[in-house]
Structures are given as C-alpha cells and as structure tokens.
Amino acid sequence: MLLSLIKILVFVAAVAGLTWAAARLTDVTGGAEIAMAGYEVTLGPLQLVLAIALLALLGWLVFKALGLTLALVNFVNGDDTALSRWFSRSRERKGYKALGEGLIALASGEGDTAVAKGRRAERYLRRPEITSILVAQGAELTGDHKTAESAYRTLVQIDRTRFVGVRGLMRQRLAEGDTATAMALARKAFELKPRHVETQDTLLRLQAEAHDWSGARATLDAKRRSGALPRNVARRRDAVLALSEARDVMDDTLDIEAREKAIEANRLSPDLIPAAVLAARSYLAVGNTRYATRVIRKAWEAEPHPDLAQVFAEIAPEEDAQARLKRFSTLIKARADHPETRMLEAELLIAAEQFNEARRALGDLVDTDPTARVLTLMAAIERGRGADDAVVRGWLTRALTAPRGPQWVCENCHNVHPHWEPVCSNCHAFDTLGWTRPTESGTTLPRGTEMLPLIVGGGVGRAEPSVPALRDAAPTASPLPAHEAAAKAPEPANGKPVDEAEIVETDPSARPEKTEADAMAEGRK
Fold first, then answer.
1. What is the per-residue pLDDT for 366?
2. Measured between alpha carbons, how far is 361 from 346 in angstroms, rounded to an integer?
3. Three-class SS state of 283
C-alpha cells in the first residue's frame, strides 16, 4: 500500500515538473535558427527540445537496426548470437519436454512411445549420452533387440557412457546364450568399473562356467578388495575355486600341481567337504596317511558326511571289520550324536556281526528320522538277527518310499545333484550347493548301493540288484566293502537266502503266513 502511494506521488511530481518546464519554455523569448542547403528553420524553445528528443530516438533506432543486421550476419555465419541463443532455448524446451514424456512412458511400460520420444529428444537436444539410454531401454521393453543394440553401440562410443553401453551389450549376449562374447564384454566392463558388483558377479559366474578358475580367483579377489564380499565368504569361495581347479587338473594327471591345489583348497576352507576329500586322497596318493587322517577328522568335526567316511576307509582298505571299527572310533567320538555318525557306527557294527549293538547305535533314528538309509540299515540288522523274510521285506518296503535324507541341494533353485559341483547345473549359480535335505522329495539320489547285497542275500561276487527301486534304496555309500559284509552276513533262520526277486514277489502262495502289515509292525518294535 505504501509503495503504491509512493509511485503515485512520484508520477504526479513528474507530470507537474514536465508541465512547469513546458510553461517556462513557452515564456522564454527567442529561439534557434537552423540553416542547411539554402533552407532556414527557426525553432522556438519548446520546438527545439522536441527536435532534440526526436533526433535522439531516431539515432537509437538506427543503432538497433545496425545491431540487428550484424546479428543476422553472425547468425548466418553460425556464430553465437542472441538470435541463435533464442532458437537454442526453444529447442531445449522442446527436447527436455520430449525427454520427460519419454521417461514417463518408460515407467508406464510404453516402450514404443519411449523410443519415439527419445528420438524426438535427440533431434532437439543432440545429447546421445542421455537420449540413447532412453531409446535402448524402451526398445528392450518392446523386444526390439536390434534398435537396443544400435543405441548401446552409440553409448559405447562416448567416454561417459561407455560402461553403460558395454553392460547393455553384455546383457543382450547373455540373453542370446552367446557366453563367449558375453565374457569378453564382461571383462571389458570389469576393466571400466572394477567395483561394480553386478559386473563382478556376472564375470565370476561366466568364468566358473567356462572353468577359467584362475581368472575367477582374480575376479573374486577384486570383489573382496572392493568390500563387496565378507572375508569369510570370499575365503570359502576361493577354496571352491581352488578345489575346482584341482579337480580339473586331476582329470588329466595326478601331479604335484593338482595335489598342491587340493591341499590349498582344504587350507582355505577346512569344512568344505569336497576339498577335504580331495586333499585326503592327495595325501594318500603319496602315502601320507597321517595328514590324510588329520584332514578327515577336522572336516568330520565340522560336518559328518558319508564321503568323508568313504575316504577314511580308503586309508586302510585291507583291514578287517574289528580293526576298522576301532580305527573309526575317533570319528564316532567326535560327533557321537550326529545322525550320520550313528548310521556310520551301525554300518561298521553290522560288518562286525554285532547286530544288537548296531540297533542300539541307530537309537531313535527309526522314529525321529526314518530316512531310506536308516530303514535299509534296519533291514540289514533284522536279517543279521535271523528275522523272518517278511520282516526284512517290511523294512525294505518302507525304505523304498522314505525320504532320502540330506543331499547336495542348490540353495538358489533347490535342484538336487548326485555329486557336489561348483556351479549348479540347473540355474548356473556359483557356490550354492549345500549338504541339506531337499524341500521336496527328489528323484536324484547320491551314489552307492554297497549295503544292498547284505540285505537281499547276495553272496560274494553277486551283481547289483536288478530292481531299480532297490538300487536306489541306499542313498549314500557305505565305508564297508560290500563283498566283505555280504560274506559275513548270516543266513536267516530257515537257512534259505532271500533273493532279489523275492522282495517284489506278488504270488500269495510264495508269501509267509504273516501279513506284511504284521511284519512292518514287528520291524518297528
């Protein structure tokens, strides 16, 4: 309000001043005479002032006209002028408007619109480092891989966006299944941004799939140094890579290099079961049983596993059942309550013909954890005790449909593998296999049916059972020699061995008087 009042007062004062000046000029006598080219012009005081003002205005207009002419000349020559800046601002407004609309279309899932707006923005802005990203992502959204590849190649040519272009091309090659080109692009992206986590993971996975273990270890070391991986996880994965490298070398020849890599893998991660197995066998290859025993014991203390027991048995393959039971006592005492330890002890006692002790070793596993292996051992125990054939058949019937127990399961896709591998064969994830129970009953089973001849009555030199279900009944390898256990197993009380065919016999006349349900009930007792 006060400002408006001041403006009004200033305006009134200006008008009053001009009026007073005009009145004073009117009262002044005399004037000015201007003679030019034979003409004379006489101007009064007021007319003189108006003429001066008019000349000043005319001079200003001439000056502006000259400036505009000069600007047009510079504009035609391509120089930076006010006119060119005006057109540039107009293009920028249109370009950024198109860019914003393209980003909105991209977020809305409208790939075609995003590509069109990106191209329009490029036409106005001429900034491919921005617009090409929009075009590439919009083209990927619509499945136009050719347009996306062209946009990524444009980004590769610009220093600021070279990594984005290489990464985009790498992802395209991965989608096409061209892993060789994808690995080369991943290496280039890794050189441009060594601390980029996704690039590190992609390169590591591709190198592992290609069995480039030395390159994968270098990538893993860079990942650890960048802080993207905890030290303990990096150490375990380094052990996995060293183990994989040792396995590949051993496929060709068991030389010093292979043994050193196997031992290094075990040193990096003593609880990695495959590394412990390979390291122990490397020591056994040179006759160093003491170090092999120490490696197995340390791994067994961390996690009992049937493969460890198998290698531990290989330390003294010619020993008798009693000597083996005594030597295995160190493993049994280390993790006495673990289910694997209890099953191992039961197998050893069965081989030593101590069937009652074998039943006590199993304890309550029959009720708390009735896996196929536990039930198969129960069938072996009942056979050793001289139980009826129907009792043995009852336990085997349960074993055929029982859970298989822990297996090598991928933590990422839950695929079951018969053996440990560094890379999942299903989802190609690296270091995701763990010895655990599958979420669902799988059909892929671990190796080994050495206990079956003992159960079904095979003698020395007998072939493996021909019934597929029986071959799968024992999910892990026993550390006992099959022929030795079979030779020591006593026959049933009736003196007739049980043949494989008898287990699946369906003729009622061939069955004993007890029903199968009664036999299974007796077996549970």
1. 92
2. 6
3. helix
For residues 450 and 466, give the distance between their C-alpha atoms in angstroms, rounded to a whole number.
Answer: 14
Where does the pLDDT of residue 453 fall: very low under 50, low under 70, confident under 90, or very high at 90 and above? very low
Query: For 301-358, what is each residue's pLDDT tens digit?
Result: 999 999 999 999 999 989 999 999 999 999 999 999 999 999 999 999 999 999 999 9
Starting at the edge strand found earlier in the chain, the sheet holding 433-436 runs: 416-417, 407-410, 433-436
Indicate the SS3 state at residue 190: helix
SS3 content of the chain, % helix, strand, coil (to 5): 65, 5, 30
Which pair of structure tokens corresponds to residue 185?
Answer: 């692009």
Higher pLDDT, 261 or 414: 414
Structure token pair of residue 174:
């991965």
| CA-atom Rg of the chain in angstroms | 45
User: SS3 for 302-356, per residue?
Assistant: HCCCHHHHHHHHHCCCCCCHHHHHHHCHHHHHHCCCCHHHHHHHHHHHHHCCCHH
| Nearest one of 278, 272, 283 to 305, comparing CA atoms | 272
Class of domain 88-157: mainly alpha
